[in-house]
Design a protein that fits this description.
alpha+beta, 390 residues, 4-stranded antiparallel beta sheet
Length: 390
């Protein structure tokens, strides 16, 4: 008997983000105020239940909050019972994850107004003609063709800092199981070059913040807050576009991608903070992670200790060290005589560390597991011939 069972490609959740057209902004702003009221009620009720002076203290769950808010939809004009229940469940999950008695209050007015947020269940959002229908309100979205044949889970309407509204829908996507033309690559993250691969490819720093710094300063001096927010969004989009292009190129080319674990949280406390934040290392790692998952690739973050000072050919710790050594971009190994590009060598050591299942640390790395480079083989052959002739 032949089995008809076939291996299905793995699936994962991806969020579709579609911009809502501006004619629905007024309705969404009013609905967001009602959501804030429901959220603040959950916050106050949960705090009172957890800090009672008698023996009936209780941590309220999402089910408890839904029971307490039953019938509250008649007091709201925009949102319904499904949205109120979603708010209760979201609040319970966030409070439990934060491990606090209460969360921050959601402000609906004034300068400290919270960004709009309207959660909903999957059944609350329906396709309607050229747009969608939610709580009796029909609204249009850009790129509506992306909703064709899509079955979404519970999502939300979210507002950005500029004031635009976005429809966020988590959907399940099947991974595309393809084989990359090349096997693996190591990536070293830096400031002058955001990313350098072990094969020599580079993503140069765009300096997007510095490029728009004059326009941003002018808008801030004139008190044009909305224009300043638009410039900030422009900078973020330019950065994301460059990182998207580079990450897509890496995923399409390599089967396994290894990145160093450099932390921007530590470097932002130094004088290099603006350059570190403008590089977007965390964003690049996040892009590589979900794109590798979608394309059935292997993605790994490994310790990059000693990757800069270690020779990727012989393993000797002969590279430049200290703060003064940062200006040295090319160096020659004193043991084997190999000329190294500082960033490319670090990327190769990052890849070596993942192959050995341990980070490159001092002289402990198992270089016997790595095939030596062609230059290393030629050098070894020459030394062997010299020994034989002697």
């Amino acid at each position: 008997m032949k089995s008809n069972n076939t291996l299905m490609p793995p699936s994962f959740t991806r969020t579709l983000r579609l911009k809502v057209r501006s004619e629905a902004y007024a309705w969404l702003n009013a609905a967001a105020m009602e959501v804030n009221e429901a959220f603040n009620y959950c916050n106050e009720t949960s705090y009172k239940a957890a800090t009672r002076t008698d023996l009936k203290r209780k941590w309220l769950t999402g089910f408890d909050l839904c029971s307490l808010t039953a019938g509250a939809s008649q007091y709201f004009e925009k949102i319904g019972a499904d949205t109120i229940q979603s708010v209760c469940n979201h609040y319970a999950q966030k409070r439990q994850a934060a491990k606090k008695l209460k969360l921050k209050w959601r402000v609906s007015r004034d300068a400290r107004r919270s960004l709009g947020w309207i959660p909903f269940k999957a059944a609350s959002l329906k396709r309607k003609g050229r747009g969608v229908r939610f709580a009796g309100k029909c609204m249009r979205v850009f790129e509506r063709e992306r909703l064709e044949g899509v079955k979404w889970q519970g999502g939300c309407f979210a507002q950005d800092a500029v004031g635009d509204w976005w429809l966020c829908l988590p959907v399940k996507v099947q991974a595309e199981c393809t084989i990359a033309p090349q096997e693996e690559v190591g990536i070293d993250l830096g400031i002058k070059s955001i990313a350098v691969t072990s094969d020599g490819d580079r993503l140069e720093a765009g300096r997007w913040t510095r490029r728009y710094a004059e326009k941003l300063a002018s808008a801030q001096r004139r008190g044009h807050k909305r224009q300043a927010k638009l410039i900030h969004r422009k900078i973020a989009r330019c950065r994301a576009d460059a990182l998207h292009v580079f990450s897509r190129k890496m995923v399409a080319k390599y089967q396994k991608i290894v990145v160093g674990d450099v932390s921007s949280l530590k470097l932002v406390k130094t004088r290099m903070a603006k350059s570190v934040l403008d590089s977007g290392w965390g964003t690049l790692k996040r892009f590589l992670a979900y794109k590798c998952e979608y394309a059935a690739r292997s993605f790994e973050v490994t310790n990059e200790r000693y990757t800069t000072v270690t020779c990727s050919d012989c393993g000797a710790l002969s590279g430049p060290r200290g703060v003064n050594g940062l200006i040295v971009r090319f160096w020659v190994c004193s043991d084997c005589g190999e000329l190294h590009d500082r960033d490319v060598n670090a990327a190769r050591n990052t890849l070596i560390g993942s192959r050995c299942r341990t980070s490159v640390s001092g002289n402990e790395s198992s270089y016997s597991l790595i095939r030596p480079s062609n230059a290393y083989r030629v050098r070894e052959a020459g030394l062997e011939s010299a020994r034989t002739a002697a």
